[in-house]
Amino acid sequence: MDNNSMNNTVNDPGKVMAIISLVVGILGILTGWAWGLGCILGVVAVILAIVSGNKSQAAGFSKSGLAIAGLICGIVAILGGAGCLACTICSVCAEGASLGVSGCASLAETAALSSYN
Fold it and tell me: Which of 71, 74, 72 is nearest to 14 (CA)?
């Protein structure tokens, strides 16, 4: 292989962003149970994956497999995080319904404070 062929290669401008998207998507899946953090990270992963794919296509490359994997992980993180958040809200409200309205507010406050400790 000659040096000219190695020097003429162009890097995909969206590759780094695709890798970041994949990492954030995986973190979103792993933290989906934590009060909606997975949803936030999932949205960030989806946005980064879309921007990465657009940058790659604008430069003449095909969409990276990393960007597609980041998009899928981001969508899974959004769905998982939203499901866990909905279950948490429902369980707090169901417990609060047995305590009354003021009991629900104090229960939610106790749950929020215990998650920070």
Answer: 71
